[in-house]
Design a protein that fits this description.
Radius of gyration: 19 Å
Number of domains: 2
Helix content: 25-40%
CATH architecture of the largest domain: 3-Layer(aba) Sandwich
Distance between the termini: 18 Å
CATH superfamily of the largest domain: Thiolase/Chalcone synthase
Number of helices: 10
Strand order of the largest sheet: 1-7-6-4-5
Structural class: alpha/beta
Order of helices and strands: EEHHEHEHEHEHEEEEHEHHHEE
Bound molecules: oxa(dethia)-CoA
Strand content: 15-25%
Shape: globular
Number of strands: 13
CATH topology of the largest domain: Peroxisomal Thiolase, Chain A, domain 1
Length: 330
């Protein structure tokens, strides 16, 4: 049975840097509030019309180059996003068309912050089963056009940024690659972090008042999310370690979903990790949801923080609630 390894990664963020001071012109906030609460200094916002699939395309070009591969070698696409270009069809088929990839399959994953790891688990299973050899897995988000810059939405608007990360997951006979994935969800908490409209439940879907009740914007119970994140991140990371007979000492690099610096630090403290054992770049990009893990992993590789043979742990928590981890022998 082949193993599934990450053969190349890429990332793309729009050029438009929006600092916390820039945010104060859009939202009633301060640099101090944002930094203290989240660790974010700046994020990127698109400043011309483009969708998650456009950002994903740029990240994919770099991933292909790093994998030393041409687009026509990809035999399946998995696209994780909560901010697709359109309600339907999914962004996976749009990316397939932009890459000129003929008739290969394209699957969209709707697991928000955990989307990249959910997608990785699918890619791993397909490759181990011998169904595909090279899968393109992307996480991409355009949040900036969909957040609420009024007082009701400011605790969310300041946290999120636009960007994309891509990974080429390839079959290998070597003793390396994805060792395990663990996926979890708790739908009872679905309303704690959600975007309700336009949804299919309402009759009519575009009812009178839809513009006034806040449901066209993401809603978040920040404290509830925070509380669950700091307990479930460590739990799912330990699950990844114990399944493979490792301890926290064995972690070379933890790449967590970049939700909030305070969450990452609380998790590191609970697991007693040294600073060199975990990666953060939230100060530069904010929370890019499904894109945050591949963007962080790409930068960690570029900074020389991931070497052949290293044990890399990916972990995520977010809307759903969903949470997940992956253990990778690099
Ligand atoms: O991928 C998962 C994504 N989500 C997360 O990771 C979020 C997890 N949660 C959090 O990180 C925190 O809950 C937040 C950073 C979102 C908020 O921090 P908090 O300490 O829970 O603040 P809060 O929402 O309870 O608000 C505290 C105060 C309020 O003012 P009063 O009532 O104390 O006068 C808010 O109105 O901060 C105010 N506030 C702001 N002030 C300046 C809320 N948003 C802002 C803002 N700028 N952007």
């Amino acid at each position: 049975m082949p193993n599934a390894r990450i053969a190349g990664m890429g990332m793309y963020v729009p050029d438009n840097v929006v600092t916390n001071d820039d945010m104060t012109k859009l939202v009633d906030t301060t640099d101090e509030w944002i930094r203290e609460r989240s660790g974010i200094h700046e994020r990127r916002f698109i400043n011309e019309e483009c969708g998650a699939s456009d950002l994903a395309l740029e990240a994919t070009k770099i991933a292909l180059e790093k994998a030393n591969m041409s687009a026509d070698e990809i035999d399946f696409i998995i696209f994780a996003t909560l901010s697709p270009d359109y309600n339907f069809p999914g962004s996976g088929v749009l990316l397939q068309d932009k890459l000129g990839l003929g008739k290969i399959g394209a699957l969209d994953v709707r697991n928000q912050c955990s989307g990249f790891i959910y997608g990785l688990s699918v890619a791993n299973a397909y490759i181990r089963a011998g169904i595909y050899k090279n899968i393109l897995l992307v996480g991409a988000e355009v949040h900036s056009t969909g957040v609420d810059f009024s007082e009701e939405g400011r605790h969310i608007a300041v946290l999120f940024g636009d960007g994309a990360g891509a990974a080429i997951i390839s079959a290998t006979d070597e003793e390396r690659g994805v060792l395990s994935t663990h996926l979890h969800a708790n739908g009872a908490k679905s309303m704690e972090l959600c975007l309700i409209n336009p949804g299919s439940r309402k009759i009519p879907r575009y009812y009178d008042g839809i513009w006034d009740d806040g449901t066209l914007y993401p809603q978040m119970n920040g404290r509830e999310v925070f509380k669950h994140a700091v307990t479930l991140f460590p739990k799912v990371i330990k699950e990844a370690l114990e399944t493979n007979g490792f301890t926290t000492e064995d972690i070379n690099l933890l790449v967590p979903h970049q939700a909030n610096m305070r969450i990452t630090e609380a998790v590191a403290q609970r697991l007693k990790l040294r600073p060199d054992q975990y990666f953060s770049n939230i100060h530069k990009y904010g929370n890019t949801t499904a894109a945050s893990i591949p963007i962080a992993l790409y930068e960690a590789i570029e900074e020389g923080r991931v070497k052949d043979g290293d044990l890399v742990i990916l972990a995520a928590f977010g809307s759903g609630f969903t949470w997940a981890s992956a253990a990778i022998r690099w």
